[in-house]
Write a structure and sequence with these properties.
- The protein is α/β, with parallel strands linked by helices and 262 residues long.
- It has a single domain, classed as P-loop containing nucleotide triphosphate hydrolases (Rossmann fold).
- The chain has an 8-stranded mixed β-sheet, with helices on both faces.
- The longest helix is centred in the last third of the chain and has 24 residues.
- The chain starts with a strand and ends with a helix.
């Protein structure tokens, strides 16, 4: 069964796209067939993998409106072997156009049915808002939501609202939706604040915070400008190790759940 996760947090600047790209790369590095879906109008995941968001022939905008099929728009980042359904700025207008469409919350989920079995993992990079685009991602996320949380003051801000949205989607659109885990990002071991934030989040969400912690690392910021995930750009950096450990933790958890259902 294909495992589909939405990577979401309506708070910007928490490392959401960075986490999506690098988690995808390390899942692929572990031998998984991985698809990354960019459903953010800023198209940062598309650009960070080296594709020009302004020149892609078809994007998730066309996918949601039903004017293109996913198999016809797949791109592949050759160095990491991550497949991509790209975004472009036109996606910003999709929400207005989707409003009057039938089953508008299911557009992404329905469009993925024809290609899902080609992949072991599908990761959806959501916009930093609780919009109709995010609702589409949450509806399609059959195995849950991964939430990046920055190790900074007010880290918990907005998480209550996100939880409420997840609960709403679970009740009305996707009964399987749950929080798969929270990823602590931009951790600075030199500061008491980072340690306190991690402790606070773990206290508020017992059992839901991944053991892997992503450090604040300049290499993670540099890699997108070269169109590469950190696994290709600087695989020996602290940031690379953080995401490698996170991918291994997720795979281990997913495999154990599969085994327990047999």
């Amino acid at each position: 069964m294909t495992i589909i996760y939405a990577i979401a947090n309506q708070k910007g600047g928490v490392g959401k796209t960075t986490s999506t790209i690098n988690l995808a790369a390390y899942l692929a590095d572990a031998g998984m067939r991985v698809l990354l879906i960019d459903i953010d109008p800023q198209s940062n995941a598309t650009s960070a993998l080296g594709f020009n968001k302004n020149t892609v022939e078809a994007s998730t905008y066309d996918l949601l409106l039903g004017t293109a099929q996913p198999q016809d728009m797949l791109l592949c980042h050759e160095e990491s072997e991550v497949s991509l359904l790209p975004a472009n700025p036109a996606l910003a207008g999709a929400e207005v156009e989707l409003v009057n469409m039938m089953a508008r919350e299911y557009r992404l989920k329905t469009s993925l049915e024809s290609i899902a079995e080609q992949f072991d993992y599908i990761l959806i990079d959501c916009p930093p808002s609780l919009s109709l685009l995010t609702i589409n991602a949450l509806t399609a996320a059959s195995h849950g939501v991964i939430i990046p949380v920055q190790c900074e003051y007010l880290a918990l801000e907005g998480l209550t609202q996100l939880q409420q949205t997840i609960q709403m989607v679970r009740q009305h659109l996707n009964r399987r939706l749950r929080i798969r885990g929270l990823v602590m990002t931009m951790y600075d071991a030199r500061t008491n604040l980072s340690r306190q934030v991690v402790q606070e989040v773990r206290e508020h969400y017992p059992g839901l915070v991944f053991r892997a912690i992503i450090p604040r690392n300049i290499r993670l910021s540099e890699a997108p400008s070269y169109g590469q995930p950190i696994s290709v750009y600087t695989p020996n950096s602290a940031g690379a190790l953080g995401y490698k450990v996170l991918a291994a933790e997720i795979i281990q958890g997913d495999m154990s759940k599969k085994g327990s259902r047999r």
